[in-house]
Amino acid sequence: MIWWMVNLVIVVKNQKINNMNYNSREEVKNLRIKFCNEIENLFQVGQTIEFINPFTVYVTEENEFDASMVKVPYIVKTMSDGQYLTGTTPYGDEFDDLSTYNLEDIVEVAYVLDTIGDKQYKILQDDTK
Fold first, then answer.
1. pLDDT tens-digit readout, 30-64
2. Using an 8 Å Cβ cutoff, are 73 and 88 in contact?
3. DSSP symbols for 37-93
4. Per-residue model confidence as pLDDT tens digits over 69-121
5. How many CB atoms lie within 10 A of CB 29?
6. Partners of 59 in the β-ladder
7. 96-110 burial string, b = 16+ CB within 10 Å, else e?
């Protein structure tokens, strides 16, 4: 009887831990989306900013050689319309369609928000006027 109760307690505790992890992941995801919305609301369509200090973000992509997933670095230099990051890859290829909503790491999104909040950018183009 005691063995059964001990196993039941372990199962219940593991279930609570699994539920806690799931809820934590959901909370982080919701917070990441909230940060993206805040960034987008700070700018209007037609505005392009240049970050004073370019920074690197990583996006998971499929490796074309063996179908494994790899983290690919993107060097971010500008942002347009409050969400589209632009810049270059370490190989010199340009990109202009990486949305803040596509960033997987909440820390990277928070960094963008903090950089903007600290006014570490300059406006390059403003088609809203």
1. 999 999 999 999 999 999 999 999 999 999 988 88
2. no
3. HHHHHTS-TTEEEEEEEEEEEEEEEE-TTT--EEEEEEEEEEEETTTEEEEE-TTS-
4. 999 999 999 999 999 999 998 889 999 999 999 998 989 999 999 999 999 99
5. 12
6. 72
7. eebebeebeebebbe
